[in-house]
Amino acid sequence: MVLRRPHAVGGRLISDGSVVYAEALWDHVTMDDQELGFKAGDVIEVVDATNKEWWWGRIMDSEGWFPASFVRLRVNQDEPMEEYLAHLEGAQAGEQSRAGLGLVLGPGLPCKEQMRTNVINEIMSTERDYIKHLKDICEGYIKQCRKRTDMFAEEQLRTIFGNIEDIYRFQRKFLKDLEKKFNKEQPHLSEIGCCFLEHQTDFQIYSEYCNNHPNACVQLSKLMKVNKYVFFFEACRLLQKMIDISLDGFLLTPVQKICKYPLQLAELLKYTNPQHRDYKDVEAALNAMKNVARLINERKRRLENIDKIAQWQSSIEDWEGEDVLSRSSDLIFSGELSKLSQPQAKSQQRMFFLFDHQMVYCKKDLLRRDMLYYKGRMDMDHMEVIDVEDGKEKDFNISVKNALKLRSLAGDQVHLLCAKKPEQKQRWLGAFADERIQVQHDRDTGFSLTEVQKKQAMFNACKSHPAGKPKVTRPYYDFLLRQKHPSLPTALPQQQVFMLAEPKRKTSTFWHNIGRLTPFKK
Question: How many angstroms separate the CA atoms of 372 and 349, rounded?
Answer without folding.
Answer: 12
